[in-house]
Amino acid sequence: MSNVTIYTKAYCPFCVQAATLLMSKGVKFQEYRIDVQPELRPEMIEKAGGRTTVPQIFINEQHIGGCDDLVALDAAGKLDPLLTQ
């Protein structure tokens, strides 16, 4: 199974949607809440190529993007292969 990391904030509906999609696939992921640990925000921005919104999702250190990007990958049938690497 892949190494999945997601940066989130509480009360973010897109964060909840992304996490729910990953959980529905049985994926365990490391979640970093940047509202609880704001010191992680600069790290997230750097890793995400300057993106400042949440969620920011990474699979095996590859930046996937946000919730819409994750959903689009799934709809295209490209998410499952990434998750099984």
From TrEMBL:
Is Oxidoreductase one of the keywords UniProt gives this record? Answer: no
Residues of the Glutaredoxin domain? 4-64
Which Gene3D superfamilies does the record cross-reference, listed alphabetically? Glutaredoxin
- Tell me which InterPro entries the record gives: GLR_AS, Glutaredoxin, Glutaredoxin_subgr, GRX_bact, Thioredoxin-like_sf
Alphabetical list of Pfam families matching this protein: Glutaredoxin (PF00462)
Q: Which UniProt keywords apply?
A: Cytoplasm, Disulfide bond, Electron transport, Redox-active center, Transport
Q: What does this protein do?
A: Has a glutathione-disulfide oxidoreductase activity in the presence of NADPH and glutathione reductase. Reduces low molecular weight disulfides and proteins.
Q: Which family does it belong to?
A: Belongs to the glutaredoxin family.
What's the protein called, per UniProt? Glutaredoxin
The lineage is:
Bacteria, Pseudomonadati, Pseudomonadota, Gammaproteobacteria, Alkalimonas
- Gene coding for it: grxC
